[in-house]
Design goal:
With 221 residues, the protein is mainly α. Helices cover 66% and strands 0% of the residues. Helix 9 runs parallel beside helix 11. The longest helix is centred in the C-terminal third of the chain and has 31 residues.
Length: 221
């Protein structure tokens, strides 16, 4: 009860208050933490701080915030802020009830591409599992023994483990930090994804021709 009172009484950074005092793990609309009389002031500050003048009109953003905060009440209002045009009303209903089969051809192609990308990622990360019984000795890890209850091999076991795990370590460290800068530098996600796809393509070919475990490690990185 005390937690709820503290969070509801805050008006400056309501969502940050929720994040800092969210022992029960609530996931909710952050705008609901803003009192109705403070919504306009809150959105004006957000619009100004994030330099959105060239992105969205302030009045439209305020209407959208009020709609997102309490859709049921907003859509039943009769004043200027709550009056939705027929097009807006239809669009809102369409967002809730449209199935994937009624979406545009372009969106279906995007979804299919994302699906194939996920499949290829799984293959890239999992393809080495089947080769784990063969490639260590073929690529120079002669002392590695993977059969039996005990896996031995001294330094070779570390080389084997690193080669297997480097994809996940690289994705969670290097990839996570360069993703946003690449998007900014290349002006959008599509160019960044294209460059990432080129790296994946070249790395897959490089792995196929690797003749040493160090080369395989580098290509997987």
């Amino acid at each position: 009860m005390e937690l709820r009172q503290r969070a509801s009484s805050a008006t400056e950074l309501p969502f940050q208050q929720l994040l800092n005092n969210n022992n029960l793990g609530y996931v909710e609309n952050p705008l609901r933490r803003v009192a109705e009389e403070h919504v306009v002031e809150y959105i004006k500050a957000f619009h100004k701080d994030n330099h959105l003048d060239s992105v969205v009109d302030l009045a439209t953003l305020i209407r959208g915030a009020r709609l997102a905060r309490q859709e049921e009440i907003f859509r039943t209002k009769e004043n200027a802020d709550g009056a939705l045009t027929e097009v807006e009303d239809t669009a809102l209903d369409s967002e809730k009830h449209t199935s994937i089969w009624t979406e545009t051809r372009e969106l279906k192609i995007i979804l299919l591409t994302c699906f194939l990308g996920a499949v290829l990622q799984g293959w890239t990360q999992g393809a080495i599992v089947g080769a784990n019984q063969i490639w260590p000795r073929a690529l120079g890890l002669k002392s590695l023994e993977l059969h039996g209850p005990a896996q031995t091999g001294g330094k070779d076991i570390w080389a084997f483990s690193a080669t297997n795990a480097i994809v996940y370590f690289a994705a969670s460290t290097v990839g996570a930090f360069i993703c946003d800068p690449m998007t900014e530098i290349l002006t959008g996600r599509r160019a960044a994804i294209f460059v990432a796809a080129l790296f994946t393509f070249v790395a897959s070919i490089g792995e196929a021709f690797a003749d040493d475990w160090r080369a395989l490690l580098a290509w997987r990185l």
